[in-house]
C-alpha cells in the first residue's frame, strides 16, 4: 500500500559475509524461517523481504555496520519491536534489516536527577518497571508497551495515553546517542535541563523514523510517582459534552488530569464482545464514554476532587452516569477495556484506520463531519473514532458493514482516507498524530506539509545520508 516500486537490490554473498562478521554468525540471520518474524507486521498490510537480519549487541557494532553500508552503498532498514503501523520498519526492496532488540540494557537509573539511560532495544514496559523500582514514573504508555521498544518509540515520536500531562516521546528525552549514516557516533547522552550551546540536535532524529540516523540509546525524563490516582469511567451523550467535561476537569484538577480518553459505544461493544476479560463498567448503555485519570502528589483529597468534577458535570447535564474505580483491579479493568479497542476491531472484518489530530476544540465537529462523509460514501459502514481527546489525537477507524466482503471494503482505503483527511485539513490538523509517515502516508506528505518545511526535510536527508542508505523509501 503506497509502496514506491523499485528494483530489489541483490547483495553479493561476499558482502553479506562482511556484514555477518561484524555481529557474528549467530546474530546474522539468513534462514527464511528465522527472518520471517521480522518481515511481517501486526496488521498484515506489509510484508518485507531481506537477505539478512543483523542483530548488533552494541553501539560499536551498529557503527561498524553503517560504516560498511555507507562505503558499499548498501541500504539498511532499522527495526525495534516491529509494532509500527505505517510500514516504516519493514524492508520492502531487499534491504538488510538491522534489529536493535539485543541492545536492551538499562544503563542507569538516576532517581536524584530524575533520568534513566536506556538502550534502543529496551521494551517500553521494562523501562516503566525500572523507573517504578526507584519510585519514579516513566509516563510513556501505549497499547503495545509489552513489545514496542524505546528506539522505535523515539524514532516515531510516540504519543500514547499519558501525552496529555507529560507530552509525547520528544518531550521525554534529554539526550541521545545516534549512529550516523557514515558510522560516526553522535554522543549526546546528557542529563542537563539547561544546555544552551547551539542547535539542539536530538530533535532532528526523534520522529525521523530512522531515515537520518539510528538511535542506539537515550536519556529519558522521569517523574515522581503519584501518591494518589483516581480513575473514572463516564457515560455521556456526545463528544461535545466530553469536551466540556475536559475543561471542567482542568478547572478543578489542573495538571493532575493525566488521561482523558474518548470512547464511542461501538468500540466498547467490540472490546466486550471479543476480549474475554473486558466488561461494560456501567449499568446502562451510553452513546459515548470517557476514561479519565487524575493523579496528584498529595496523599489525601483526590477522591473528593474527582467526585466534585463528576457531580458538577452531572448538574450541568454533561454526564449521564459514572463510576470510580475502587481498587487496582478495577482500575486495570478499565484500562484493559481501553487498550483492547484497537485489536478487537479486526474480529469485525476489515478496518480502515486513520491516526489524525485536530485542535482540541474542533474534535467534536471533526468527528461529526468525518462520520457523515464516510457513512454517505459506504452505507452501513461503522465508524469507530476513539482516542486522546485531551491532545486532539483521534484514531478515526472505519469498520466494514456487517456481512460485507473484507477485500472489497478495503479497496476503499484511499477513498476513505481522502474524505477524512479533507476534514482534517479544514480544521488545520495533521494526517499523522503519533504513528508516523513510513510508506503508508509518504505520497501524501508533500501535499500537507508546508513547502519550505518539506524542502528543509529533504535537505537534511541529503546532508546526513547522502548515499540514501538509511531506511530508503520511508517518510520522503
Description:
The protein has 476 residues and is α+β, with helices and mostly antiparallel strands. It is 34% helix and 20% strand. It contains 17 helices and 18 strands. Strands 15-12-14-13-17-18-16 form a 7-stranded antiparallel beta sheet, sandwiched between helices. The chain has a 5-stranded antiparallel beta sheet with strand order 5-6-10-8-9. A 4-stranded mixed beta sheet has the order 1-2-4-3. The longest helix is centred in the middle third of the chain and has 15 residues, at 239-253. It is globular. The mean pLDDT is 94.
Give the structure's gist in a few sentences.
The protein is an alpha+beta fold and 476 residues long.
Topology:
Layout: H1 13-23, E1 28-29, H2 32-39, E2 53-54, H3 59-72, E3 76-79, E4 96-99, E5 106-110, E6 115-119, H4 124-133, E7 136-137, H5 150-155, H6 163-166, E8 173-179, E9 185-188, H7 202-205, E10 214-221, E11 223-224, E12 228-236, H8 239-253, E13 257-264, H9 265-274, E14 288-296, H10 302-315, E15 321-324, H11 328-339, H12 341-344, E16 351-357, H13 363-377, E17 382-388, E18 393-399, H14 406-410, H15 413-426, H16 445-448, H17 451-464
Parallel strand pairs: 2-4, 3-4
Antiparallel strand pairs: 1-2, 5-6, 6-10, 7-11, 8-9, 8-10, 12-14, 12-15, 13-14, 13-17, 16-18, 17-18
Helix pairs in contact: 1-3, 8-10, 13-15
Amino acid at each position: 500500500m503506497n509502496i514506491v516500486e523499485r528494483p530489489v537490490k541483490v547483495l553479493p554473498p561476499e558482502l553479506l559475509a562482511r556484514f555477518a562478521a561484524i555481529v557474528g554468525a549467530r546474530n546474522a540471520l539468513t534462514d527464511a524461517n528465522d527472518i520471517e518474524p521480522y518481515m511481517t507486521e501486526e496488521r498484515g498490510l506489509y510484508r518485507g523481504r531481506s537477505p539478512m537480519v543483523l542483530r548488533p549487541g552494541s553501539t560499536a557494532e551498529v557503527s561498524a555496520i553503517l560504516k560498511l553500508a555507507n562505503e558499499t552503498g548498501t541500504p539498511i532498514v532499522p527495526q525495534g519491536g516491529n509494532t509500527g503501523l505505517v510500514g516504516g520498519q519493514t524492508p520492502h526492496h531487499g534491504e538488510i534489516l538491522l534489529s536493535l532488540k539485543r541492545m536492551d540494557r538499562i544503563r542507569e537509573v538516576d532517581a536524584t536527577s530524575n533520568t534513566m539511560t536506556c538502550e534502543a532495544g529496551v521494551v517500553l514496559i521494562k523501562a516503566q518497571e525500572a523507573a517504578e523500582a526507584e519510585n519514579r514514573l516513566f509516563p510513556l504508555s501505549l497499547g503495545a508497551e509489552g513489545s514496542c521498544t524505546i528506539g522505535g518509540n523515539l524514532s516515531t515520536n510516540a504519543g500514547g495515553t499519558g501525552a496529555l500531562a507529560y507530552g509525547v516521546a520528544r518531550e521525554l528525552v534529554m539526550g541521545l546517542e545516534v549512529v550516523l549514516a557514515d558510522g560516526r557516533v553522535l554522543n549526546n547522552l546528557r542529563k542537563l535541563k539547561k544546555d544552551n550551546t547551539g542547535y539542539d540536535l536530538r530533535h532532528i532524529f526523534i520522529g525521523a523514523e530512522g531515515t537520518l540516523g539510528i538511535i542506539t540509546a537515550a536519556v529519558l525524563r522521569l517523574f515522581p510517582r503519584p501518591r494518589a490516582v483516581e480513575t473514572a469511567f463516564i457515560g455521556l451523550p456526545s463528544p461535545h459534552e466530553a469536551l466540556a467535561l475536559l475543561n471542567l476537569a482542568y478547572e478543578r484538577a489542573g495538571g493532575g488530569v493525566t488521561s482523558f480518553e474518548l470512547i464511542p459505544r461501538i468500540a466498547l461493544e467490540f472490546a466486550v464482545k471479543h476480549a474475554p476479560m473486558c466488561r461494560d463498567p456501567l449499568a446502562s448503555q451510553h452513546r459515548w464514554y470517557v476514561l479519565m485519570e487524575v493523579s496528584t502528589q498529595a496523599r489525601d483529597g483526590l477522591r473528593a476532587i474527582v467526585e466534585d468534577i463528576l457531580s458538577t458535570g452531572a448538574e450541568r447535564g454533561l454526564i449521564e452516569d459514572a463510576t470510580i474505580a475502587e481498587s487496582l483491579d478495577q482500575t486495570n479493568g478499565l484500562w484493559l477495556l481501553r487498550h483492547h479497542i484497537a485489536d478487537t476491531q479486526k474480529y469485525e472484518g476489515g478496518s480502515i484506520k486513520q491516526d489524525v489530530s485536530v485542535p482540541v476544540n474542533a474534535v467534536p465537529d471533526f468527528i461529526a463531519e468525518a462520520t457523515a462523509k464516510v457513512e454517505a460514501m459506504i452505507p452501513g459502514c461503522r465508524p469507530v473514532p476513539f482516542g486522546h481527546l485531551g491532545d486532539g489525537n483521534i484514531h478515526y477507524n472505519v469498520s466494514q458493514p456487517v456481512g460485507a466482503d473484507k477485500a472489497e471494503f478495503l479497496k476503499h482505503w484511499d477513498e476513505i482516507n481522502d474524505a477524512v483527511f479533507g476534514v482534517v485539513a479544514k480544521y488545520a490538523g495533521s494526517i499523522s498524530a503519533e504513528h508516523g509517515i513510513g510508506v503508508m502516508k509518504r505520497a501524501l506528505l508533500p501535499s500537507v506539509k508546508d513547502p519550505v518545511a518539506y524542502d528543509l526535510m529533504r535537505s537534511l536527508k541529503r546532508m546526513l545520508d547522502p548515499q540514501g542508505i538509511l531506511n530508503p523509501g520511508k517518510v520522503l
